[in-house]
Amino acid sequence: MTGIMNGKRGLIMGVANNHSIAWGIAQKLAGQGAELAFTYQGEALGKRVKPLAAELGSDFVIPCDVEDIASVDSTIEAIKEKWGKLDFVVHAIGFSDKNELKGLYADTSRDNFSRTMVISCFSFTEIAKRAAELMTEGGSLLTLTYGGSVRIMPNYNVMGVAKAALEASVRYLAGDYGPRGIRVNAISAGPIRTLAGAGISDARAMLSWQQKNAPLRRTVTIEDVGNSALYLLSDLSSGVTGEIHYVDAGYNITSMPTLERLAK
Ligand code: NAD
C-alpha cells in the first residue's frame, strides 16, 4: 500500500527529537505522501526539529508554545497563508512539573494542576477550534493519551487527571465537528522512552512491567504508534471518530501479572 496520504497536508505538533512519538508518526505520514508542517517549542528544540523536518522534505517549521495563545494563533495564520487549508493535525504535547510526577497525587499544587491542564489538555481544544476553520473538506485531528487516565499508575498523578480530561475533550470535539466531516481521535500509547516519558518517576520500572505483562510481551515503539496514527489520520478510518485507540501491546486488557511471573 503506497501513497494513501497523497495530496493531504497536515500539522505535526510535539517533535522534540528523533525519539518523540510525533516523529514516529511524521515518518509514517511522509512515507505515504503527506505534506507536513511542524511546530517546535523554543529555539533550542527548533535546532533539532528543523533538520528532522528537512529529512522528510519539509521546510515549513513554525515556533509555537501552546501556553501562549498568540503563538497558537500565529501558527494557524501561517498555515492559512501558505496552504489555505489543512487536512490533519497531530497534537503530541504534554507537560507537568516533574517534581509532582512522583509521590502522592493529593500533593499536586494548584499552579501545576492548572498549567498541566492548559498545556496537556486544553491546548488540544484551542488548536482543534482553529484548525477546524481550515478543514473545509473535512479532516482528522489526533492527540496522544496514556492509560493512567482510566487506572491509577504510580507517579503519573496529575498527568492522569489531565489525560482523562483530554479523552473527554476528544469525545466532545468529535461531537462538535462530526457534522463538518472532521474526525477527532486519540491514541493511548504504552510507555515509550522519550523526553516526556523520562520525566515520570520510575519510568524504567514501568517499561519493564509492561514488557513482562502485556499480552505481546513487549513495549511499543514510535513506529507502532506511527502505524496506528496513519490509519486514524487517513481515509482508512473514515467511519471512526471519538475513539481512544490503545497502542500498548494489549496491556490495558490485563488484570493480573502474567502466569510466568506468578510461577516464579
Ligand atoms: P516528547 O518529550 O518527545 O514530546 C513532548 C512534546 O511536548 C515536546 O515536543 C515538547 O516540546 C512539547 N511541549 C511541552 N510543552 C509545550 C508547550 N507549552 N508548547 C508546545 N509544545 C510543548 O515526549 P512524547 O512521549 O513523544 O510525548 C508526546 C505525547 O505523547 C504527550 O502528550 C505524552 O503525554 C504522550 N504519551 C507519551 C507516552 C510515553 O510513554 N512516552 C505514552 C503515552 C502518551
What are the SSEs and their pairings?
Elements: E1 9-13, H1 21-31, E2 35-40, H2 43-55, E3 61-63, H3 69-82, E4 88-91, H4 110-132, E5 139-145, H5 157-177, E6 182-189, H6 195-198, H7 203-213, H8 222-233, E7 244-247, H9 259-263
Parallel strand pairs: 1-2, 1-4, 2-3, 4-5, 5-6, 6-7
Helix pairs in contact: 1-8, 3-4, 4-5
The structure holds nicotinamide-adenine-dinucleotide.
CATH superfamily: NAD(P)-binding Rossmann-like Domain
Q: Would you count the extended β strands for me?
A: 7
Strand content: 5-15%
Give the low-confidence spans: none
Structural class: alpha/beta
Structure explained in plain terms:
With 264 residues, the chain is an alpha/beta fold. It has a single domain (9-263), classed as NAD(P)-binding Rossmann-like Domain (Rossmann fold, 3-Layer(aba) Sandwich), CATH 3.40.50.720. The chain is 43% helix and 14% strand. It has nine helices and seven strands. It has helices at residues 21-31, 43-55, 69-82, 110-132, 157-177, 195-198, 203-213, 222-233, 259-263; strands at residues 9-13, 35-40, 61-63, 88-91, 139-145, 182-189, 244-247. Strands 3-2-1-4-5-6-7 form a seven-stranded parallel sheet, sandwiched between helices. The termini are far apart. The structure holds nicotinamide-adenine-dinucleotide. Residues 14-16, 20-22, 41, 45, 64-67, 92-95, 119, 144-146, 189, 191-192, 194-197 line the site of nicotinamide-adenine-dinucleotide. Nicotinamide-adenine-dinucleotide binds at residues 14-16, 20-22, 41, 45, 64-67, 92-95, 119, 144-146, 189, 191-192, 194-197.
